[in-house]
Design brief:
The complex is a heterodimer. Chain A is an alpha/beta fold. Chain A is built from 8 helices and 6 strands. Chain A has 2 domains: 138 residues, no CATH class; 130 residues, no CATH class. By secondary structure, chain B is α/β, with parallel strands linked by helices. Chain B is elongated, with a radius of gyration of 33 Å. The two termini of chain B are 19 Å apart. The model of chain B has no long low-confidence stretch (mean pLDDT 94). The chains are: A alpha/beta, B alpha/beta.
């Protein structure tokens, strides 16, 4: 695929590890199916040759930074991954001086599953407004200035369903949930030491796999990501029962964008929109 | 299993007239944990309280539900009653069956009774989960900070100091005295302003309990009532005030003259100066903007082209004790204080936005404060009222009221309150200075509410012949040596034109420069104009919403001298009350954060309206910790936290949920 990016990633990884700028370099390598990609942790300069970058590098590697708080770590970051890092910086979860971000100007990734590289771009990449990472230490590719507006065509379609149909739609989706929590485990925003759903006292959402409990779990998780989700599609990709979780997250993203003119993950100094108050927010949100 | 006692209050017929108390009592007996039910005509009465106390002891109760009026009414009463029986006062819960039930459902007695039963059921469920809570004591630093050395600040500082407490008085200008020091006479008694103010200023400087910091500003305030950590910047004066004797040679000999701030531009001062002869401290500062030596240094520093300014340093050569210190730097002074009084005062409205009054370009259109300086015996003209343009004595003087007051178009809809009175005073004084003067006052209303105020304005009109014209002035223009004032007398409904020698604008009151910044530093509220906001305009007029921070004087709104003095004294009384305690007790109904669940995401500390959450390092990360001295128990952090780390004591998630579950099992 794009060998130029791969070569640049390898070269930078080698340089950073050789010069001991970082102790660990997190990137991607080819998976054993030889088609898709998987995360790779590189500790020695000579291992850098295994690194690749192509349009099957779908994973958001930023979550691994949470386990590397004490070691200086470099990470390959597409724009959405870099935005996840910005959110983690906003929320004091990682230290800027401990991380080195290899930003990639991203043309989009494909919807790839084990054994098939795929050709269709992922949902998140269709109409993605951000091709250059908002934060990086080293950039691979030419930065693009033009930031298109997110059209929210998928969200608009859901909004037009009507209340009853929409409720029926989500009931149908959530009843498939098997409460495996893969969405939570993959999400860089889900880092609580104890998740609300695991609490017994008080019991916010029962542990049964049942329509009401599933409804509570998925909705509360979506609200916990309000103003924080950076559209990396991780939850939706790992969901074994194909619940369109990004649709829910993007609906909330649109609401926050309209009410507070806030897009998460763009500014490492930004304060959470729900934690701050500005007078102009009193005005009716523009539709 | 807890042993819950339920006490049902009739509140005369307030409750019992609607809610069927025997039915409620029967139902309540069935609730889990309830071992005792009693009812009383007035639970809050002494016999009612005694019954509660006795029942707790006789029946070994360890939880109590009082089913009565709103907790806002009698929570403290019943806590005391429970406490007197030896029970922790926080093992009591109130079910509000009056405001929430009998009063609003008087048309449906059956439903009201049913609702009362449910309200009690919820309270029983909640109180069963209550735990003992204890008040804590925090230390009190017996020292106060007063910000602003005008008359309000001076009064507050003196009153606190006289009560035996240490006071730090911080003033931004080189002297204390504030606006009152600029005035000539004071209405309505016409006392000389300086004569009544100067003794107080001297008292401040000589008081053993007052540390006076002039030419200083408060930069940072942290902490909470009893323990505010304050950083004060003492600006460099370039004069060593320990060795300076205030002999005055420097300011008499300094060759550089600039318009004086204190004289409102009517007179000049030197670069090394004291603002006025009675200044306290009576030791000078050097103004680095105009000083020739600083200009010289600046010239060398920036490697500027052209003719070098002279490196003057005359003051240094002439100073007998050699107190001039060019190397002096700003100094940061750190203090811990128990309470803070804000008395940052006011400034007058900038009339240049009124183009129709000349916009500040006509020299003989002056402000009321400038006239004060001209009338003042220690002012630039030694009390002779002359026209700034040619130095002649004005014979016809026109006053314009409400310049920057009661004018929505200029963003100042409020009344400045003092202008009507000082205009009358000034017009009257002009006549005293020179019996040949005729004054005219254009007014909207004559607002003379106050002791002897109305009599005073009548006297100005009747004895001193001041002519009051009701109406606004539309235009002032220069016509040779005269100022043509065109307005309307709305009482006769005709335009009037007066050929005046001088026009005085009664400029309104607005907060001091930087008042909003002071408010932000202290985290207290201010309104759209920048005036400080009191905790309650009527019942708590000198308190703010932050405990231990008080406000006094015209920083809260337009005020005259007696009001400012009264408020300064009132703020001082509150401070003295606080500082007379050795420790402060805190309310235990605060949030507490479970460190094991905290992710250190900072959301709670960002959202906390009282800055009560600090981040502290723990186990290699930073976690949130509640400062119980600051926490008001609002519960915002509880609602905001995703990982449910905070909980509110007395209102834990489990307790609230138990109420919900009691209602809908």
């Amino acid at each position: 695929m794009d060998d130029k990016i791969t070569l640049a990633v390898r070269e930078k990884a080698k340089e950073l590890l050789e010069q001991k700028v970082v102790d660990c370099f997190i990137g991607y390598e080819k998976a054993t199916d030889n088609l898709t990609s998987r995360p790779l942790f590189v500790y020695k300069p000579e291992q850098a040759e295994r690194l690749v970058f192509d349009n099957t590098c779908v994973h958001n590697l930023s979550k691994y930074l949470l386990n590397k708080k004490d070691t200086k770590t470099a990470v390959v970051a597409k724009p959405c991954d870099a935005r996840a890092i910005v959110v983690l910086l906003n929320e004091n979860q990682v230290q800027r001086e401990k991380i080195y971000i290899i930003g990639i100007v991203c043309p989009g990734v494909v919807d790839s599953r084990w054994g098939s590289a795929g050709t269709e771009p992922e949902v998140r990449c269709q109409g993605c407004p951000q091709h250059t990472p908002p934060l990086y230490d080293f950039l691979i590719g030419e930065p693009t200035d033009e930031v298109e507006q997110d059209a929210y065509t998928d969200v608009t379609a859901m909004e037009e369903m009507g209340d009853a149909d929409r409720e029926a739609f989500w009931k149908e989706q959530f009843q498939r949930c098997i409460r495996c929590y893969a969405c939570r485990n993959v999400c860089p925003g889900c880092y609580c030491p104890v998740c609300f759903v695991d609490l017994k006292e008080p019991l916010w959402a029962g542990i049964r796999v049942a329509p009401g409990e599933n409804w509570m779990w998925n909705n509360i998780r979506a609200f916990h990501l309000l103003g924080r989700c950076i559209d990396c599609n991780g939850c939706q990709r790992v969901c074994p029962v194909n619940i369109p979780l990004m649709l829910l997250n993007r609906k909330l993203k649109k609401e926050v964008a309209q009410a507070f003119a806030f897009i998460p993950g763009m500014d490492p100094k930004a304060l959470a929109p729900l934690a701050t108050f500005k007078k102009e927010e009193l005005a009716e949100p523009s539709k | 299993m807890p042993r819950v006692g339920v006490f049902l209050c009739h509140c005369g017929t307030n409750i019992a007239g609607v809610v069927d108390i025997p039915t409620v009592a029967e139902a309540v007996k069935q609730f889990p944990g309830v071992v005792y039910v009693d009812d009383n005509k007035f639970s809050c009465s002494e016999p009612g309280q005694a019954a509660i106390r006795q029942s707790i002891i006789d029946n070994g109760l360890d939880r109590v539900v009082i089913s009565a009026c709103s907790p806002r009414m009698h929570e403290i009463t019943f806590r005391k009653a429970v406490s007197a029986a030896g029970l922790n006062p926080y093992l009591m819960e109130i079910a509000n069956i009056r405001e929430h039930c009998s009063w609003v459902h008087s048309d449906n007695k059956e439903a009201a009774t049913e609702k009362a039963i449910e309200l009690v059921k919820m309270a029983v469920a909640k109180v069963s989960l209550h735990q003992e809570l204890f008040r804590k004591r925090i230390s009190m630093e017996k020292k106060a900070l007063v910000i602003g050395g005008g008359i309000a600040g001076i009064q507050a500082a003196l009153d606190i100091a006289n009560a035996g407490h240490q006071v730090i008085l911080v003033e931004r200008e080189p002297t204390i005295g504030g606006r009152m020091a600029q005035l000539d006479k004071t209405f309505p008694t016409l006392d000389c302003s300086a004569c009544i103010l100067s003794p107080k200023m001297v008292d401040v400087s000589q008081h053993p309990n007052i540390r006076l910091l002039t030419y200083s500003e408060v930069e940072k305030v942290q902490g909470f009532v009893g323990n505010f950590e304050v950083e004060i910047r003492q600006r460099a004066r370039y004069v060593n005030h320990t060795t300076c004797t205030g002999c005055g040679i420097c300011w008499q000999k300094c060759p550089e003259k600039v318009p004086g701030e204190f004289e409102e531009g009517t007179g000049q001062r030197t670069s090394v100066y004291i603002p006025f002869p009675q200044a306290v401290p009576s030791k000078p500062v050097i103004d680095t903007v105009s000083c020739r030596y600083f200009k010289y240094l600046d010239f060398i520093d920036k490697k500027m082209e052209g003719k070098k300014p002279p490196p003057c340093r005359i003051c240094e050569k002439l100073c007998p004790p050699q107190a001039i210190d060019w190397e002096q730097k700003d100094e940061i002074i750190r203090e811990t204080v128990g309470a803070i009084v804000v008395a940052t005062g006011f400034k007058t409205f900038d009339h240049s936005v009124y183009g129709e009054y000349g916009g500040g370009r006509i020299p003989d259109v002056i402000t009321s404060l400038q006239l004060e300086r001209l009338m003042n015996a220690s002012g630039p003209t030694l009390g002779e009222v002359v026209r700034p343009s040619d130095g002649t004595h004005p014979k016809t003087v026109v006053f314009l009221s409400c310049v920057g007051s009661r004018d929505e178009a200029k963003g100042r809809p409020y009344c400045s309150k003092i202008c009507c009175m000082y205009m009358a005073k000034q017009a009257l004084m002009l006549k005293e200075h020179d019996p040949g003067v005729q004054s005219y006052i254009f007014y909207i209303d004559i607002r003379a509410g106050g002791k002897d105020f109305e009599e005073f304005t009548r006297r100005a009109q009747e004895e001193f012949g001041v002519l009051y014209l009701r109406g606004r002035v539309s235009k002032i223009y220069q016509d040779d040596k005269k100022l043509m004032v065109c307005g309307e007398d709305s009482l006769i409904g005709r335009p009037v034109e007066i050929a005046a020698d001088m026009v005085v604008l009664a400029t309104g009151v607005e907060p001091s420069e930087g008042a909003a910044k002071v408010a932000q530093t202290l985290n207290i509220s201010y309104d759209t104009y920048g005036f400080m906001v009191e905790a309650h305009p009527k019942l708590r007029p000198v308190e703010t919403n932050t405990d231990g921070i008080l406000v006094a004087g015209a920083c809260v709104g337009p005020r005259d001298i007696p009001d400012s003095v009264a408020h300064g004294g009132a703020a001082a009384a509150k401070v003295i009350g606080l500082l007379s305690q050795d420790t402060l007790t805190t309310e235990p109904l605060t949030a507490a954060i479970d460190a094991s669940r905290c992710t250190g995401c900072l959301l709670c500390s960002q959202i906390c309206p009282f800055q009560a959450i600090d981040m502290v390092p723990a186990n290699g990360k930073s976690i949130a910790v509640v400062n119980e001295g600051l926490c008001k128990g609002c519960g915002l952090c509880v609602a905001a936290c995703r990982s449910t780390a905070p909980s509110l004591k007395g209102y834990t998630d489990a307790q609230i949920l138990s109420e919900v579950l009691a209602l809908c099992p």
